[in-house]
Write a structure and sequence with these properties.
Chain A is mainly β. Chain A is 15% helix and 37% strand. The longest helix of chain B is centred in the N-terminal third of the chain and has 34 residues. The chains are: A mainly beta, B alpha+beta.
Chain lengths: 213, 220
């Protein structure tokens, strides 16, 4: 009888411990099988691109044509000059400025650049004055769109052209953004009465773009 | 005799106490088994056999085509931007630039798990962060590669229509992506508008973004 009591006691205590185990398992969610059912997946995709930039300029207007004319008799010279988008001005001569408007250079590249200008001739090369006087060949660079050109030779002033190799740098920073990427190059000619070069005369303006300074 | 009688009384008390604990524990034990569905429903005295089996389900996403590669190119001179678009399994197209779309196919995502899931995507960069410059755009468009793959669309803007990528938080683009073979694939296409004036720190250097694609419990 005593042995049976002890056995029952042991069995009872064992079941009590089992009960505690079950309750603990319940409290800690061990039987919560739903927690195992779904995972979460993460993966990756990739997008790659390289954007190249290039210096690219465009002479939107690349020709100035004064056509034919003479120095007004009795005058030492005639002066012809362009003025941006307006027709050219003729003084003391009978050339026409209808097709004489400034060169227009646009930076259509993907980056700012610098600009250098160089002519093929100087004034004397152009006209060959007998007295080597009354002849001028000048340029004047200005912004067609504000803030297009900065940090270079003087803007908005007439200066003698430069035919030496390398030319003259006018813009160290020629902007490429729409609305601020165009400049004028106006040209002034003073034609002497004693020019020895007759007939059609021409010159070539070389525009060189390089990395911004 | 008295000693023996006291000993017998103590033993009886212990026995009674153990018996009470035993009955109580037994009741709790049986109810616990029923509660946790270990025994199943009570069935009286009918004789049944049970086969117990647990099948775990799993969400697994496979990004079969995981890279959109446009390579190197530039905006055509004089234009303010170039537009690059992927077209699912077809090669990408471009306007206003000279990139190659040969390796620019839409990302292809498949739910190869054993349960429907939701699909969320998140980009690492915004358009401005990707390109800088004037008017950049970085958009995506999620569509079915397999018919009826997505049973319940998420963000309407991402369903057949390009919309700006989400950077700050993942966008749930499909609430229920099917897992059955032949009906579980989706495309993530991209539309890039590359400005002509990208930031100098970005130009001429490989630019990359990572799209995080997550699958979670289906929402529908």
């Amino acid at each position: 009888m005593k042995l049976s009591n002890n056995l029952l006691f042991i069995v009872g205590v064992t079941l009590d411990l089992f009960l505690i185990l079950i309750i603990s398992a319940h409290l800690f969610g061990i039987f919560d099988f739903k927690g195992f059912l779904t995972g979460k997946a993460t993966n990756e995709g990739h997008l790659n691109i390289t954007i190249l930039t290039a210096i690219n300029i465009n002479l939107t207007r690349d020709s100035i044509n004064w056509s034919s004319g003479i120095v007004t008799p009795g005058e030492n010279n005639a002066t012809l000059y362009t003025r941006g988008n307006d027709t050219g001005v003729v003084q003391r001569g009978n050339w026409t400025g209808a097709d004489a408007r400034a060169f227009v250079i646009a930076n259509i590249g993907g980056v700012n650049c610098s600009i250098k200008l160089q002519t093929g001739k100087n004034a004397h090369d152009f006209f060959n004055s007998l007295t080597n006087s009354n002849e001028q060949y000048m340029w004047n660079v200005s912004n067609k769109e504000s803030n297009s050109c900065s940090e270079g030779a003087m803007l908005g002033a007439w200066t003698d052209v430069n035919k030496t190799s390398g030319g003259t740098e006018f813009c160290k920073q020629f902007d490429n953004h729409q609305g601020s990427n165009e400049i004028y190059v106006d040209i002034l000619l003073t034609i002497p009465y004693d020019a020895q070069n007759f007939g059609e005369q021409s010159d070539t303006l070389t525009v060189t773009a390089d990395a911004a300074g | 005799m008295k000693y023996n009688g006291e000993s017998e009384g103590v033993s009886r008390n212990i026995f009674n106490l153990a018996l009470v604990f035993f009955i109580f524990a037994l009741i709790i034990f049986v109810f616990s088994l029923i509660y946790f569905e270990i025994l199943g429903e009570t069935t009286g005295f009918a004789s049944y056999g049970y086969v117990n089996l647990t099948i775990n389900t799993q969400i697994t996403l496979n990004v079969t085509n995981n890279t959109v590669n446009w390579g190197a190119g530039m905006v055509d001179a004089g234009l303010v931007n170039a537009t690059l678009i992927t077209h699912g399994g077809s090669i990408g197209t471009k306007t206003g630039g000279n990139w190659s779309g040969t390796n620019a196919l839409g990302l292809f995502v498949e739910n190869i798990g054993s349960i429907n899931c939701s699909l969320s995507i998140q980009a690492g960069k915004s358009a401005a962060g990707f390109f800088g410059g004037t008017g950049p755009e970085y958009q995506w468009n999620v569509s079915n590669a397999h018919a009826n793959a997505c049973g319940d669309w998420g963000e309407p803007s991402s369903h057949g229509l390009f919309a700006n990528v989400n950077v700050s938080a993942a966008a749930v683009v499909c609430k229920k992506l099917d897992f059955h073979s032949g009906q579980r694939g989706m495309y993530i296409d991209f539309r890039l508008v590359v400005p002509y004036d990208v930031n100098s720190t970005i130009a001429n250097v490989l630019q990359a973004d990572t799209i995080t694609i997550s699958g979670d419990t289906a929402l529908a």
